[in-house]
Amino acid sequence: MRLIEIDLSSQYLNFACCVLTFTFITPETNIVQNNEQKLGVVNAIAAYLMWGLAPIYFKTLESVNADEIMVHRVVWSSVLLLLFVFATARIRAVISTLVQPGVLIKLTISACFLGFNWFLFIWAVNNDHILDASLGYYINPLFNVALGMVFLNERLRKWQLVAVLLAVIGVLIQVVTLGELPIISLALAGSFAIYGLIRKKLQVNSIAGLLIESSVMLPIALLYWLWFVNSSTSNMAENSLSLNLLFVFAGIVTTAPLLCFTAAAKRLTLSTVGFFQYIGPSIMFVLATFYYDEPLEPSKLVTFGFIWLALVIYSADSMKTYRKLKV
User: Fold this and answer.
1) Residue 302: half-sphere exposure toward Cβ, Cα within 13 Å
2) Measured in whole angstroms, how far is the alpha carbon of residue 202 from the centre of its chain?
3) pTM here?
4) Where is the EamA domain (predicted)?
5) What is the pLDDT of residues 227-286, one digit of tens each?
6) Domain boundaries, the chain
């Protein structure tokens, strides 16, 4: 099983590097609209495929503590994003953001939610809770709808309300049958939804903002690495080349799908991009159930059923509304 996981991780590395290269070299001007939309679809699919396959990477490091993996995720993401910013001449966007104290405070807050989400996902995968992570990212779009209603004064359409209520029922079924809330799922969905809400209200370049958020986490990660990480793998000079490459690859696992998502968002409407978002948790569900043999209790399956039904209704309503607006 270990050999298979390492082989899959290698394939994931090759795929992510190819997509990352594609994102760097994709032309953004002088392309006909049809080709732009095709490129947007390719980038959207690539982003959600990589998010869905991310557990394979983290499983190859399950012998390493989640906090140590998190350190590498922050460090190498920061390095890769900095290189990308200079390579694509976005440094002015970073500087213009750094001179706005109010924006920096909000990015610091969003960095806290993002960091929590990153760490919890690593912990969930390496402690055999991929199904919970999958459920969390299925719930996330419905969390977004609920937060929009509460904080952005967005009114829920009738079928959106039905979808949210079905999701709530699905969670309550798990509470009644198992006697506990799906904490991991709700925490992943909630933290990413709140992060998205904060970023939505900030007029900041997406890549520049992500670099600043990573930079906020970087000093903490480095200090933690130097003073608190005390394991057989904490000193990279003593590690094998393959292990160090896996650590560095944490930066690609984190940033490559985000860069592809950004490229997709530039070329497609957000409602169109939204229809691809279920690729990620669906892949996680398949991996957890059929590859990593995580137990799927009947109550949890019922919860998934309610969430899936809610998402079908939500997606159908979104498509119907989008077509009306397009006409």
Assistant:
1) 14
2) 19
3) 0.83
4) 39-173, 186-314
5) 999 899 999 999 999 999 999 999 999 999 988 888 887 777 655 676 788 899 999 999
6) 2-326
